[in-house]
Amino acid sequence: MSQTGLQxxxxxxxxxxxxxxxxxxLTVERGRVHALMGPNGSGKSTLxxxxxxxxxxxxxxxxxxLDGEELLGLSPDKRAKAGLFLSFQYPAAIPGVTVANFLxxxxxxxxxxxxxxxxxxxxxxxxxxxxxxxTAFLGRYVNDGFxxxxxxxxxxxxxxxxxxKYAVLDETDSGLDVDALAAVGTSLRALRESxxxxxxxxxxxTHYPRILQHVPADVVHVMMEGRIVKSGGPELANExxxxxxxxxxxxxxxxxx
Length: 257
Prior knowledge:
Elements: E1 6-15, E2 18-28, E3 33-37, H1 44-52, E4 58-66, E5 69-70, H2 76-82, E6 84-87, E7 94-98, H3 99-111, H4 117-130, E8 141-142, H5 148-162, E9 166-170, H6 178-193, E10 201-206, E11 219-224, E12 227-232, H7 235-243, H8 246-253
Parallel strand pairs: 3-10, 3-11, 6-9, 9-10
Antiparallel strand pairs: 1-2, 1-4, 4-5, 7-8, 11-12
């Protein structure tokens, strides 16, 4: 039987010779939502960047496989072609490049020329409709002058267009006000419930459980000091909402850190 899932085994990662991740074990299955929560500085974003191949993050041990294919020896673009997607906490602006051209180039890079221009255009408008986004987005320059909510919704549009096997969402709710969070959460829920989304494995990295009110997690993991220290069902996120991280820190680390 072929191995399936985005599987992380004993992953250890350093930045400038300082160990950040100290042995991470985690498997994300297609069609399920995993939430990775933890206080600031616990290593959550390090995990996201290391999996997707950021050069500043040095893997010193362990493995990451996607449906049985080892990712760590691949360049970032080949990891994307294998089916891995990362939504950035702070999406970059690209002045002079329209959203329409960016989406077309991204799709071609990841999927090759799998769609004719007419079919690609049809796909884009279908996804805009799914996410309740204005077609005016297509003529704007990528994230240039975008609000925080608009940047995150464009990330959701990219996710919809690329239809990856596994999506890592790095603090998608970061810096959003209540209205922007609701809009992004609605977009993410629509993606999750779409035909493609039902076959995508999601790893939602977040500090607060607010986004999980829109897209409930099947499994919640808590990271502290570079390790996953606790895993549970959706009720674990509710516990964190009520009591914060101190109780878990006391429970698993004896209050240290």
